[in-house]
Amino acid sequence: MVPAEGAVDISPSALVIVQHRGPSTADDSVSPLVMPTQPPLRHRAGRLDYMAGNPERDDEADAQQVVTAITGVRLAHADRYGGADYRSVDGSVALEVTTVTDRAAKAARGPLLELIGSRSSSADLNECWLVSVNERHAPLKGVSERVLPHLVVLSSAGLRYVRRQSAYGFRNDAASVRDAVAELIRQGVELAASPTGICPRTVHDHTVLWTAGGGGVASSSDAALSAVEKDLNARADNFDKLADTNAASTHLFVWVDSETSFAVTRAFLHRVEDAEPEFNLPTRAPQLSGPVTNLWIVHRGTRNGWRWDGSVWRAVSASTITATPSP
User: Fold this and answer.
1) Contact status, residue 55 vs residue 42, Cβ threshold 8 Å
2) 3-26: b or e for each residue (b if 16 or more CB lie within 10 Å)?
3) Which residues, including other chains, have CB under 8 Å from residue 32's CB and lie 6 or more apart?
4) What residues contact residue 254 under an 8 Å CB cut-off, 6+ apart?
């Protein structure tokens, strides 16, 4: 429909204001002023969206899917210009997503930087593995090729857990196993494990996920929680964003991964029910300097984690939860 003189066309494609330059005459000309009503387009995850501030990151979408799957609360991406990442429709729940990283170790890794977070595959493995390598060990170049054959030996023997401190425990095993364990230690392996749930439930090629070790002593879940608290309390941005929402229920979701200190990630190698006693759920409430009613800590690789729901810690197993972009 063509707008009348002096009218406003509010169609989605454009805003057209038709104005007269003076008194109406037979020779009067009409000057259309076209003003776009839609912001620039962006392409994300195979779809076009209108740019409305900060785009939704993959790690944010992943965390949102975990929270929604476990709590049943539907959350929409809300971080348009620097606020909390997600809000519920009624505004009563807010979610902020962050990552705890060992920044100093990350900066000093050098040759290991390309290895951590990557995966190596072998048709001879019977399960997937997570291997933590000491970044201070040399030489690191080619370490994946040197380590894989020894993991195959352990896999074939039905062994799924080796750490440097427990190497003596294999003295009664077959010579091939003892030699494999000794060689893993010589190659700088701090820990090699195949935790329950690390393998996807679909048909797949078994892989090794590489992480960096040597970043602190892993002693207990309480110690891991203390390290996470220290990192979070040193930066106020996450707390400020949650406080600004005035939501009754504030969730802080923390990813840990291959660039997090081993003193933290050790607690998430196994599901809580399969872990050693000292790496069960923490024994105390979180101590944070901001308004957080629910604290989530989940390992990006193993998908194991914890959730503080305001009164007790609960185990999180997110291996079957797949992230999809939020509406």
Assistant:
1) yes
2) eeeeeeeeeeeeebebeeeeeeee
3) 16, 17, 18
4) 98, 99, 100, 228, 232, 295, 296, 297, 298
Q: What is the tens place of the pLDDT at every residue in 249-278?
A: 999 999 998 778 878 988 888 888 877 888
The predicted-structure confidence for 28-74, as pLDDT tens digits, reads as follows 443 333 333 333 333 334 333 434 568 999 999 999 999 999 999 99
Task: Say how far apart CA 73 and CA 64 lie, in whole Å.
Answer: 10
The single-letter code of the amino acid at 66 is V
Task: Take residue 68 and report the two structure tokens written for it.
Answer: 């929604």
Which token pair is 191? 């820990």
User: How many Cβ atoms sit within 10 Å of the Cβ of residue 202?
Assistant: 5
Residue type, 281: L
Nearest Cα neighbor of 91 from 79, 81, 80, 76 is 76
> Does residue 15 contact residue 9 with C-beta atoms inside 8 Å?
yes
Angle between helix 175-186 and 143-156 (nearest 10) = 150
Spans of the chain below 70 pLDDT? 1-53, 102-118, 135-140, 168, 197, 201, 212-218, 320, 322-327
Strand stretches in the chain, DSSP E? 8-9, 15-20, 30-35, 41-44, 47-50, 75-77, 86-88, 93-99, 119-121, 129-134, 161-163, 189-193, 207-213, 249-256, 294-299, 304-308, 313-317
Q: Are 77 and 87 in contact (CB under 8 A)?
A: no
Reference 255, options 184, 200, 323, 183; nearest CA is: 323
Contact 16, 34 (CB under 8 A): yes
User: What is the rounded distance in angstroms from the CA atom of residue 158 to the CA atom of residue 181?
Assistant: 14
Phi and psi at residue 118, to the nearest 5°: -90, 175
**Spatial strand order in the sheet of 119-121:** 119-121, 207-213, 129-134, 189-193, 161-163
